[in-house]
Amino acid sequence: MANPNGIGAPVRRREDQRFLTGRGSYTDDFKRPNMTHAVHVRSPYAHALVKGIDAAEALAAPGVVAVLTGADMEADKVGSLPCGWQIHSKDGSPMKEPGHFPLARGRVRYVGDAVAVVIAETREQARDAAELVVVEYEELPAVASSTRAVEGAAALVHDDAPGNVCYDWHLGDKAAVDAAFAQAAHVARIDLVNNRLVPNAMEPRAALGEYDAATGDYTLTTTSQNPHVIRLLMGAFVLGIPEHKLRVVAPDVGGGFGSKIFHYGEEAVVTWAARRIGRPVKWTADRSESFLTDAHGRDHVSHAEMAMDKDGHFLGLRVSTLANLGAYLSTFAPSIPTYLYATLLAGQYKTPAIYAEVKAVFTNTAPVDAYRGAGRPEACYLIERLVDVAAGVAGLDRTEIRRRNFVPAEAMPYQTPVALQYDTGDFAKNLEIALPLVDYDGFQARKAASRAKGKLRGIGFATYIEACGIAPSNVAGALGARAGLYECAEVRFHPTGSVTVFTGSHSHGQGHETTFAQLVAERFGIPIENVEIVHGDTAKIPFGMGTYGSRSLAVGGSALVKAMDKVERKARKIAAHMLEAAESDIEVKDGRFTVAGTDKGLGIGDIALQAYVPHNFPLDELEPGLDEQAFYDPKNFTYPNGCHVCEVEIDPETGVTEVVAFAAVDDFGRVINPLIVEGQVHGGLVQGIGQALFENCVYDESGQLLTGSYMDYCMPRADDVPSFTVRYHEDQPCTHNPLGVKGCGEAGTIGASAAVMNAVVDALAAYGVTHMDMPATPEKVWRVIQAATPAMAAE
Amino acid sequence: MYAFSYQRPRSLAEAAAALQAEDAKLLGGGQTLLPTLKQRLARPSDLIDLGAIPELKGIREAGGGLEIGAFTRHAEVAHSDLVHRVIPALASLAEGIGDRQVRNMGTLGGSIANADPSADYPAAVVALKGTVLTDRREIAGDEFFTGMFETALEPGEIVRAVRFAAPDKAAYAKFRNPASRYAIVGVFVARFGAEVRVAVTGAGGSVFRAGAFETALAADFRAEALNGLSVGTDGLNADLHASAEYRAHLVTVMAKRAVEAAG
């Protein structure tokens, strides 16, 4: 009988009991004896020289322990925050990699750049004193947008990055694309902006640094998606602390969406300061700091062209993108608009020639890095908007042009012209499942009904494919990653048969404590209650690359499978010994080890006990214990894919867009927990809809953040979205990992924005609209209607 | 927030006395003041919590209309049978303020004394011939709101209650800021016999009456009567979310919707 909590079971998330009853342990919940509190003094200017810092009054304020600056860090030889990925420009030169110090040294480059840290007995005392630190600034001209940054007269963010260019990179075959355009019957063109977003994890970032003078050991507790990576980056490059003296703990973390992958300066500040002052130091961001200093997402300006033959078959795609990286290089920033973006520009289509140019620039804004989807939503949005325009140019229905150009399932594995090899996928099938879910045939009748009540109705499609399960280390290394991107797992059977799993993946909302436990319960036929999943602590887990890029199950889960394979091999040896049989005669099923052809057998619990009570083991051949560890490095990316369909209704009097229906059909490969998968899709869709209709990060020309709170930065709410129709199919499993899984964490975000905007543009087609940049705010929609109405009235 | 002294007087007289302290501030439901304090944008010496003063509470019929105590929370107005019976449009306005948490804390007096240009209640005070009752005097609703975050209240004066006239027909239509959910434009339309009042909040620096709309609706109380009418863009707010031109347009749209809702 199948395990009721095994693979495929919609097990309720075990961790939710503590989260929903307020019993989670987040970084800010930790209190240490003698702990102090840090508050950062941050630049109010987007660009300025720091001429002097006078901390005398702050130091004299009640409760103040220390005021520390960039000069103090420099004196202690604290290094620059390292960048984990190196890109080379077209001409072969390496990207510009300016210093990025935890506390600024002489110059600040965005509003929120940290200048000093005040440490006091209480947080309020530190805040009071922070206001007393007098910083003398000499304001410099600032540049706040990527398009301004590349203008000749623009201010330079870094003196050693001429033209503000970090790199000018390309991918693909330019000559082949030029040839495709030369023979095109139709060409579709689009200019678009992928709007900048603020991640807004529910839990703000926080860090607690501790130093034990007796042992010389440091501990950093931090809101991280990947504690081992932080230990490596901070220990080796910033503070010079060897791994055996530095423990990094990422306890319960309340959402990340990518923004907690990166190594931030505050982590180094509290760890360094803890030793300097000899007391634990805690820093917790307030929401305003989160808006100013969490790494932002997206921010692309692109031009794209698609060459087609007379029947609308794609011949060539040409893309040029300007990417804003902000003031400094965040940990993975350079990889996002390159290897996680341009490599996805084939989408689901067999476009034979693709050429993409990406110029990445510095601006006086917060750093920009991975945000849920990370490059892939930008690619999907560009392709799917362009394909809709192409349908208009070629005179084809928007579903037909997609069908005509899909990579067929039988062409798998499929090598794209932009470096990736898709392993599996049946894109036409996704579309055919989706169409009846939204009653596509009935759309015209619904549109007419909307029109009768004065409303505009539109329907939009987006197909997406993403490269997840990041990443094959050899591929990542060839593309500029300065680390491998494998994962590690350890499976420890205890003498009485319960199991602790140590995983290098990190759960900050994904539900690993449930999903990973299901894998173990299924494999060994044990109750899920007997399995504990431990993550987020470098002192407990051998190693880990963490959670991002929809990689936990595909890479971390595969490492777990490998470790379970090793446990099973060892258990088989023990069973053979105990049952006095040849190892080759032992059969294993659901955690039972039996001698072939007999009724003699042992459960995994019996074997575990013997492993730790080995009275008569042949010690030359069989070690005691049942505790195995494995590293898994994927052979390829995984390729989740799907088709999203959105239907909107627009009130032309106000310009308000309502999402009235949304269907998502996804191929995530094999699904371990359908309940968690559906939840991930729902959350992703809301984020994608958020970008399309609501969210927008706006800096003014001088580099001040105008959307620095929820009064102005519009998050999507539950009443902004419809009840979603979510379907998945499992008949295209991943071919190269042992579970056949592809990953589901980012899919919703990747497809949704394009589907919404294609629906909005469809609804407005009668007004001559062929494109609108996100977000489709009420005033923006109203204005295009107003602009077109006199012309329509004249017709 | 900065440190302050907290006081919780038991009577209006005690509150007035406490308010004599330098930089003292009255605390109603705290839905504006507390976030302001948390962001260190205000530094009062004393916070005088009005929550324990019986004179500020309660909803009663008065002069054919309603008198609502200043410390009446939005949720109480929204759920009051009396308000639903006498001025249902007022209950509906209160039900649409902010979110559930805001409505359970925010108060009528706090809202009008703060005079946020995008608050909802000012539109009701003006359209429903409101009278603001203070610990010193009565102030006509038309005279109460004098500018952005400015009122006719004198230093140390405390709002005790607001009296609203009961209209024959009324409705409030709001276009919410999608981020903050304050009113980008809110229009309260009320008909009293041959007289129609149209009060607009959110659009300008302070609530104002749309005279041309009132005249048109007095002659013909139908949405169509507003066709072609506009309040114009002079003096209207403009921000990230809505230009003055868009706000002016929305005033007409919301006024029509209020008329339709009033029936």
Radius of gyration of chain A: 28 Å
For the record, give the distance between the C-alpha atoms at the N and C termini of chain A, rounded to a whole number: 70 Å
- Secondary-structure element order of chain B, N to C: EHEHEEEHHHHHHEEHEEEEEEEHH
Give the CATH level 1 class of the largest domain in chain A. Alpha Beta
Supply the number of structural domains of chain A: 3
**What is the count of helical runs of chain B?**
11
Strand order of the largest sheet of chain A: 3-5-1-12-9-10-11
Architecture (CATH level 2) name of the largest domain in chain B: 2-Layer Sandwich
At the fold tier of CATH, the topology name of the largest domain in chain A is Aldehyde Oxidoreductase, domain 4
Roughly what is the average pLDDT of chain A, rounded to an integer? Answer: 96
Task: Output the number of helix runs of chain A.
Answer: 20
Determine the structural class of chain B based on helices, strands and strand pairing: alpha+beta
User: Kindly state the mean pLDDT of chain B as a whole number?
Assistant: 97
Strand content of chain A: 15-25%
Number of strands of chain B: 14
Multimeric state: heterodimer
Secondary-structure-derived class of chain A? alpha+beta
Count of domains of chain B: 3
Provide the helix percentage of chain B. 25-40%
* CATH homologous superfamily heading of the largest domain in chain A: Aldehyde oxidase/xanthine dehydrogenase, molybdopterin binding domain
Strand order, largest beta sheet of chain B: 4-5-10-6-7
Structure description:
- With 795 residues, chain A is an alpha+beta fold.
- Chain A folds into 3 domains: 18-22 and 33-85 and 94-140 and 200-293, Alpha-Beta Complex (Aldehyde Oxidoreductase, domain 3), CATH 3.90.1170.50; 300-470 and 636-794, 2-Layer Sandwich (Aldehyde Oxidoreductase, domain 4), CATH 3.30.365; 486-632, 2-Layer Sandwich (Aldehyde Oxidoreductase, domain 4).
- Chain A has 20 helices and 28 strands.
- In chain A, helix 16 crosses helix 17 (604-612).
- The model of chain A has no long low-confidence stretch (mean pLDDT 96).
- Chain B folds into 3 domains: 5-49, Uridine Diphospho-n-acetylenolpyruvylglucosamine Reductase, domain 2 (2-Layer Sandwich), CATH 3.30.43; 54-164, Uridine Diphospho-n-acetylenolpyruvylglucosamine Reductase, domain 3; 169-262, CO dehydrogenase flavoprotein, C-terminal domain (Enolase-like, domain 1, 2-Layer Sandwich), CATH 3.30.390.50.
- Chain B is built from 11 helices and 14 strands.
- In chain B, the strands form 4 sheets. A 5-stranded antiparallel sheet of chain B has the order 4-5-10-6-7. Chain B has a 4-stranded antiparallel sheet with strand order 11-12-13-14, with helices on both faces.
- In chain B, a hairpin with a 2-residue loop joins strand 12 and strand 13 (195-201).
- Chain A binds chain B through residues 124, 127-128, 131, 288, 653-654, 694, 698, 706-707, 710-715, 720, 777-779, 782-783, and chain B through 1-3, 39-40, 175, 178-180, 240-243, 246, 249-250, 253.
